[in-house]
Design goal:
- By secondary structure, this protein is an alpha/beta fold.
- It contains 4 helices and 5 strands; from the N terminus they run ααβαββαββ.
- The chain has a 5-stranded mixed β-sheet with strand order 2-1-5-3-4, with helices on one face.
- It is rod-shaped.
- The termini are far apart.
């Protein structure tokens, strides 16, 4: 009775686990696709290329020219700095231009002053030449000038003898007379104007007289007063 009551495999009802699917069963990997099998090799190749590019960029210096994603954030600052430098350059250029204009204006003023000085120098030269011409004209001896010889000595005919000497020297208007009024203290040749100075000096040289003076109030242009 006891052996008959013992439960066996067949004493249980059949369920889904009693009919397993055909084929191998258990924990194992399924078959992989070709893409999944090639992916590790692709990754290795990409990493190798990136490493090569990085080494080339560092060695050649081209890595500094690479634009990183964060470089766009720095560009406004760089642009502002460049604008500031550009503004400073323009300001310096304007300052140099203004300085150049001032220099040109200064050079123009200097040129104008130089021209004015040259004109003044020319005018002075002309005036000096004119004065020299006048002086030359004044120094010309005019033998036609009227000359009066006054005898203030006690020698009779002394004035006429001196007048004859002047006539022989080429003077054409010579007269002899006696003194009237005050007479000087020594023999003298008086002349009336500057234009008569050269003639008066020539008269004095001809008569051997050293005292030549200009005198106002003369009636005759040149007066010779003879004393002892």
């Amino acid at each position: 009775m006891a052996k008959q009551d013992k439960e066996t495999y067949d004493s249980y009802e059949k369920d889904v686990y009693d009919n397993p699917p055909a084929g191998p069963m258990g924990v194992h990997r399924g078959a992989r696709s070709a893409a999944s099998r090639a992916m590790p090799y692709v990754i290795v190749i990409i990493v190798a290329l990136l490493a090569g590019l990085l080494f080339w960029g560092v060695y050649s210096g081209e890595i500094n020219n690479l634009k990183m994603p964060w470089s766009s954030q720095e560009s406004p600052t760089t642009s502002s700095a460049e604008k500031s430098k550009s503004g400073e350059s323009k300001s310096k250029s304007q300052a140099d231009s203004a300085s150049g204009n001032k220099t040109d204006a200064s050079n123009a003023d200097s040129s104008t002053d130089s021209q004015q000085n040259d004109q003044n120098a020319d005018q002075n030269a002309d005036q000096n030449a004119e004065q020299a011409d006048n002086a030359t004209a004044q120094q010309v001896v005019n033998t036609g000038t009227e000359v009066r010889v006054v005898n203030a000595t006690n020698i009779t005919g002394y004035a006429q003898s001196k007048a004859d000497v002047l006539v022989q020297a080429g003077y054409t208007s010579v007269s002899a007379s006696n003194p009237t009024g005050n007479v000087p203290s020594q023999t003298v040749v008086w002349y009336q104007n500057e234009t008569d100075k050269a003639t008066a000096e020539n008269v004095a040289q001809t008569l051997g007289i050293s005292n030549v003076q200009q005198s106002d109030g003369l009636v005759t242009p040149i007066v010779v007063v003879l004393l002892d």
